[in-house]
Amino acid sequence: MATSSSSRRGWMSNIQSIASRVYFFLIILQIPLFRIPCRAGMCSTPIHVTSSQLIASEIFPVPVIKGLLYPGAIVNGLVNNRTVARWDDLLSIYNLISVKEASAVTDLQCLEVLAGSYFSVAGALVGILKPSRMSMFGTLLVIWGLIKEGILGKPGNTDPSQSVYVYPTMLIAVLCAFSSIKYDVKKVRRIVPARPIAKPVASSSKSKLK
After folding, report:
1. Helix H or strand E segment including 35
2. Are strands 41-43 and 165-166 parallel, antiparallel or unpaired?
3. Residue 129 CA to chain centroid, in angstroms?
4. Which residue in 58, 72, 139, 177 has the fewest CB atoms around it within 10 Å?
5. Cα–Cα distance, 134 to 55 (Å, whole number)
6. Residue 74 in contact with residue 84, Cβ under 8 Å?
7. CA–CA separation, 157 vs 22, rounded Å?
8. What Rg value do the Cα atoms of the chain yield, rounded?
9. What is the reported pLDDT for 201?
10. How far is the CA of 125 from the CAs of 64, 80, 88, 136, 179, in angstroms?
11. Across the strands, what pairs with 35?
12. How far apart are CA 106 and CA 84, in angstroms?
């Protein structure tokens, strides 16, 4: 029994580790998960949404944000143009040069997607070291924001390139986000109280005989 339980825990830890790595590469390599209007125009990855907001608010230095963008920019450049993206051209590639002057109304309308993108990026980075629930919360927030924006969005927008869209890769992100969570079965058993065993009530006739 001990061997089977230890092998089960090892199998679960391998699933969590693999899921965390796949989720990390989905986020850091900027695999398109959705399409939604943002301050940079149209954003298709959590890092693009996060970077546009961080540059507009000036919370982090620009080199730190470029560091988040650079791995995905290299992959996208090699796949699309077969060229390596230059460090100095990152802001222009992602349309982030004039993002400070862009209207913040778009971000206010998609607060769930913005907050979910923050959690997704942070969960992807933290999940490499230790599995956490941030990636799951972030992914759920993004999905809820996309659903809300798709249902309550402006019906007059007939341009398909400007409409909200969810790519099939979002399903992979959801599966990885949930699979990377670490469940402790022992803690769950401790939290659930034991049910008291009901004792049979002796009948009055038997009690009189006694």
Report:
1. strand 34-38
2. unpaired
3. 16
4. 58
5. 22
6. yes
7. 35
8. 25
9. 53
10. 14, 26, 24, 13, 16
11. 165
12. 31
Helix (H) or strand (E) holding 37: strand 34-38
Q: Output the DSSP codes for 159-174.
A: -GGGS-EE-THHHHHH
Q: Can you give the residue ranges of every domain in the chain?
A: 2-185
Distance, in Å, from the CA atom of 167 to the CA atom of 98, rounded to the nearest integer, reads 27
Which residues, 6 or more positions from 141, have their beta carbon under 8 angstroms from its beta carbon?
112, 113, 115, 116, 119
Q: If you count them, how many residues does the chain have?
A: 210
Question: Under 8 Å CB-to-CB from 136, ≥6 apart: which residues?
Answer: 123, 177, 178, 180, 181
What tokens appear for 17 in the block?
């580790």
In terms of phi and psi (left: phi > 0; alpha: psi -120 to 50; beta: otherwise), the region of 58 is: left
The gap from C-alpha 27 to its chain's centroid, in whole angstroms, comes to 8
Tell me if residue 45 falls in helix, strand or coil: coil
CB 142 within 8 A of CB 113: yes
pLDDT in tens, 3-49: 555 555 656 668 888 999 999 999 999 999 999 888 888 899 999 99
Instruction: Give the helix/strand (H/E) hosting 38.
Output: strand 34-38
Extract the tokens encoding 32.
Answer: 């398109």
DSSP string, 59-128: -S-HHHHHHHHHHHHHHHHHHHTSSPPPGGGHHHHTT-TTGGGS-SHHHHHTHHHHHHHHHHHHHHHHHH
* Lookup: tokens for 77: 């450049």
Cβ-count burial 118-142 (b if 16+ within 10 Å, e if not): bbbbbbbbebeeebbebbbbbbbbb
User: What is the per-residue pLDDT across 78-91, written as a single tens digit (0 to 9) for each?
Assistant: 988 888 889 999 99
